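Please decode residue identities from the backbone states below.
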């Protein structure tokens, strides 16, 4: 989901964004795929942005935001952030589709692994069973012999 907000504070580690009355952190590593030395050069305080919620902690009332996920090409937030914001909804939809496809692929791989294990454990051995009478006998202790000195 793509949200509109504005930058309320800029820190060395990221920017705080107000999205509908809720403040979220846009960490410096989530602004762009390219390196950012100074957050304020990319996201000046008071500027309007579009971003995606990438995680939330309801217990602590925190949300983590990303604009990196809205980049069509790595570094677009630095090169042309207005273009990123213009295409944000489309890019966000494609990102969500990709996440859903990855989730389905992981589920299918897990199911394949489970079915594979089931077939391993349900197979009967091809070799004939050993003589059951020999298997039921207890092992006898080795005889003890005295050693002459």
């Amino acid at each position: 989901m793509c949200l509109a907000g504005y930058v309320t504070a800029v820190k060395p580690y990221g920017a705080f964004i107000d999205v509908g009355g809720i403040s979220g952190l846009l960490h410096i590593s989530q602004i762009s795929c390219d390196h950012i030395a100074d957050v304020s050069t990319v996201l000046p305080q008071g500027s309007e942005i579009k971003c995606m919620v990438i995680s939330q902690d309801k217990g602590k009332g925190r949300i983590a935001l990303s604009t990196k996920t809205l980049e069509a090409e790595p570094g677009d937030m630095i090169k042309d952030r207005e273009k990123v914001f213009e295409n944000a909804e489309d890019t966000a939809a494609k990102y969500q589709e990709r996440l859903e496809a990855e989730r389905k692929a992981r589920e299918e791989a897990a199911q394949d692994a489970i079915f594979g294990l089931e077939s391993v454990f349900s197979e009967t051995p091809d070799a004939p069973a050993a003589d059951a009478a020999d298997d039921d006998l207890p092992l006898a202790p080795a005889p003890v012999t005295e050693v002459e000195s």
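Observation: Residues 88-122 form the longest helix (35 residues).
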